[in-house]
Structure formats: structure tokens, C-alpha cells
């Protein structure tokens, strides 16, 4: 076929050499000539393969501390010359420029260097110049040249060489070119983001690898994709393929559970918690979380911050759910939970470390810092005559953690570190409160002595009045309304304690 091209000369210049030895062997066995620099050349020669030095081709040494090695017309002419272009062939013959058919590059680890806390001098030196130029040149001339732009593409090249020898199709080369521009654009995005900084950014440049096609998006008529590395956070032990909506709930579940250190179980539905409890044992936490709303728990996402044992698994197994997440499972527990073949069982390997959020809006994007503030007892300012004891403080902080992760407008009612009910996503705070009270009564919660948390301030005293009439005697809210005194006055007149945090937690 006309689109089949032989690899006769390969330029190899890489940072990561793991997995390269087998590729080099396959190339050598197929008579491919090697061209390289510095450490990569030494690596090739130690494997027993002859390798020409780039310096011998260019007649220039590596200069400026290694900053300039491959940047030369004899290198880039060898890559960019079009084999079917008569003028290109005459010029390469005139200037004695040999063709280069394969370029293997692995760039300096810029992002890793930034993440390590290295000095700016070290970071700047990890901005690859020659490598990124080789990638772009080889990718541009994919009609004739194969470009392997990172260690992530070593394996696809190895498979091609093992199956076909030192030959590639146009489709092969075009695929590698696509991968190359993905690598180069991500690399440049990382460098730009470093220079731009987190304060007052001038543009949004996002590069996320790991595309996964979902069965569909939020609804069956929508296409859906996930870009990211789930395997860095989770190990899927069992179950069907994770869906688009599963991922939304998993994200909500993990960010909520990150708030808790004591044994806690949470049940989420459509990104909102419908059952949460903190208890001395994980079995108790599960039972009391489920009691919060056993109806909504059907088909939900379950998460805990402790190992799931056999006894807890026996109880969990009594209901239908989509996903369960835990840091670990006892073998007996897995044996029970795996009885349902489609049930998704995830082991959480690491916490979510991202600090920025973004979402598409109109013809652009909104970007913000993640809401990472979690109130402590030191953040609480008592504004009423009635005070709160230590137990009430624990309940108030518990409720406040939950309301932070509910869709606004939101109200959470809690008692003894158990979610009694939440009113979420309402257009009025009063509606959210009434929804929560009605739901709590539906599941037979006694609200006498319960606490109320609000994600934002009360514009009027009506919410504290309604809550008090339902039996609630302690309230936590951010404060900040011009009519805060109306709510405080009602509380003082009726023996209700109120604390303010100074932190609003809207979640739209």
C-alpha cells in the first residue's frame, strides 16, 4: 500500500527510559539506524546497539548547558522534508541532510518539578525546548514520519513493531500525530498556568488526559465523556461500567466524606445527602444513616471512611444501591456485596487534591477555588443569650458540614450527629425548611432538641420561628443579613441558641 512507510532512521531523545529497551531491540532487529544525544545515547549503546551522535550530524556540540542540542537544520530538515516533494529532496541532497523516519521523545517533567516545590530556577530548566520542537515537527510531517511524544505511547509503538516490523501505515502515523499535539498542548498549558498563577488569571488553559466514552451523558439522548484518571483515586473491585451520573454522585460523595474523621456513613442521591450519621462503629453509622431516608436510599451511592466488615455488609446488602465506596473491605464483606453482579464496588485509594473547579457557562467558563473551608468550634460566634454546650456544638458543626454539600437554597436538620432531613435546591429558604421538617416527620424523627444549619443567612426571622415551633433549639448560619437582629431577637425571646460562622456555602 502507498501509505506504508519504512522506518530506517530513528532519533531518540527521552527523559523516561523505562520500557524503551524492548522498542530499541525491535528497531535494531529490523535494521533501523539510531541517532541520539547525551544520556539517551549512552543508554542505547549500553544495550549493545550502535548509535550516531547528533553532534556528529550537525557538527555542533551540545551547548549552553544542554539547552541547545537538536535545534539544527540537519535535524529538523531530516524530519520535515517531504519525501514526495522534489524540491525538498534536492535541498536535502544538496545540504547532506539524512531523512529521519521515527522520532521518540519524552519531555522534561515540568509539572512534576513544579509539584515537588523546586526552586523557580529548577522549574525553568525543566521547560523543554528541543523536545517540544521535535514533537511538533514530526507530527506536522506525519505523512512520512512517526512521532512518539511521551512514554505513554511507548506501548502502542511496541505493538506495531512486534506485529508489522519497522513499518507504519498512514493511519498509525496520524494517530501518533494526534497524540503528539495532545502532549504538546498539555505541556504548554501547564507552563502557561505556572506563569499565570492562581491569583487574577488572564486565561483558562485546561489539559486533562484519559478520555473515557460513557454509555451516554446525563440522559440517554446525550453523548457523554469523562476526562481524567479515575484509577488514581479508586480501584473498581466489582460491578458494571461507571456511568456519567454515577461519576457526579461519586464526586459529591467523596467531597462530602472528606469533611469527616470519625466513623461516618453517608447515602447520596442526585448529588445530595439523604442519610448521614457519625457513630462509634461503622455498623451503627450505616443503620442510622439509612434511617434518615430509607426510601431515597434506593438506587443511591453509599460511602464510608472506614473498612466495611461482614456484619455491616450483611445489613447493606438488604437494599438496592448503585455504588459503594470505602477505603477497604474485609474479604467476608466483599463476598456478600459481590452477590449482585452490577453493583459498583470502589476502593478509595487517595483523597481528591484538586483546588479549582470550573464549569461551562454561556460561551465561556466559570472558574473558582473549591470550597475547602470547614468550620470549627473556633469559628462559631454565639449571638444569642442562650449558649450552646459541647454536645450542641458537635451537632451544629455536623449539620454545617452537611449543608455545605447540599444544593442551595438548603437547610439541614440534625440530631445526635445524624441527619434528620434536608431541604435542598429550593427557591426560598422557608420552602427548604418546610421541606426538611415534613421529611423528618415522614421518617418519624423527633425534632425536639434538633439543630438547624443554613447554607446562607436568614433574610427574615420566619425561618427561626418555624424551626422553633418544630422543636429546634439551636441554629447555625453564616450571618450577614441587614436583618440579622430580627432573627437574633426572636431567638432571645424564645430560648433558641444561634451561632454565626461568617462563611456562606452556596452550591448551585
Describe the 3D structure.
The structure is a single chain. This protein is an alpha/beta fold and 508 residues long. It folds into three domains: 192 residues, Methylglyoxal synthase-like domain (Rossmann fold), CATH 3.40.50; 118 residues, Cytidine Deaminase, domain 2, CATH 3.40.140; 124 residues, Cytidine Deaminase, domain 2 (3-Layer(aba) Sandwich). The protein contains 18 helices and 23 strands. Helix 1 links the parallel strand 2 and strand 3. Helix 16 packs parallel to helix 17 and helix 17 runs parallel beside helix 18. It is elongated, with a radius of gyration of 30 Å. The protein starts with a strand and ends in an 8-residue tail after the last strand.
Summarize the topology:
Layout: E1 5-6, E2 9-14, H1 20-29, E3 33-36, H2 38-46, E4 51-53, H3 54-58, H4 73-80, H5 86-94, E5 102-106, H6 110-115, H7 120-125, H8 130-140, E6 146-148, H9 154-164, E7 167-168, H10 170-196, E8 211-213, E9 225-227, E10 234-238, H11 244-257, E11 264-269, E12 272-278, H12 282-291, E13 300-304, H13 310-316, E14 321-326, H14 331-337, E15 344-348, E16 356-361, E17 364-369, E18 381-382, H15 390-404, E19 411-414, E20 419-423, H16 429-442, E21 451-454, H17 462-469, E22 474-477, H18 484-494, E23 497-500
Parallel strand pairs: 2-3, 2-5, 3-4, 5-6, 13-14, 14-15, 21-22, 22-23
Antiparallel strand pairs: 1-7, 8-9, 10-15, 11-12, 11-13, 16-17, 18-23, 19-20, 19-21
